[in-house]
Design brief:
mainly beta, 4-stranded antiparallel β-sheet
């Protein structure tokens, strides 16, 4: 079955403590992360790290380190769009389960 040429996706998650893979590019598409919003849904400030896990490497490329999100506020950790290649992952790490909600918008482009 052929993949659609372009497919927009909206991914949502309530983060658990530790590393959370929000999206992993694992099919033959080029993925563009359009936007990311992380919202603190608790009564105290929260922090998070945002990274890209590159395929074939144990190291992560850090996009945001110890980003602070005040009570009932949101953070957009991306200054622009990010392109993911095959098997790359978009990862958010936090220390408190259930404290942060994330909304990620991506565009998947079929590769010929």
């Amino acid at each position: 079955m052929a993949l659609p040429l372009n497919r927009f996706r909206l991914l949502t998650a309530n983060l658990i403590s530790g590393s959370n893979t929000i999206y992993q590019e694992n099919i033959d598409v080029a993925t563009i992360i359009l936007s990311c919003q992380i919202t603190n849904i608790t009564g105290s400030s929260q922090t998070c790290d945002v990274a890209i896990a590159k395929s074939g490497s144990a190291a992560q490329i850090i996009l945001l380190k110890n980003g602070t999100i005040p009570v009932n506020e949101s953070l957009n950790p991306l200054a622009g769009k990010i392109v993911l290649e095959r098997n790359d992952a978009f990862v958010i790490k936090t220390s408190v389960s259930g404290s942060l909600d994330v909304v990620l918008s991506v565009l998947e482009n079929a590769i010929n």
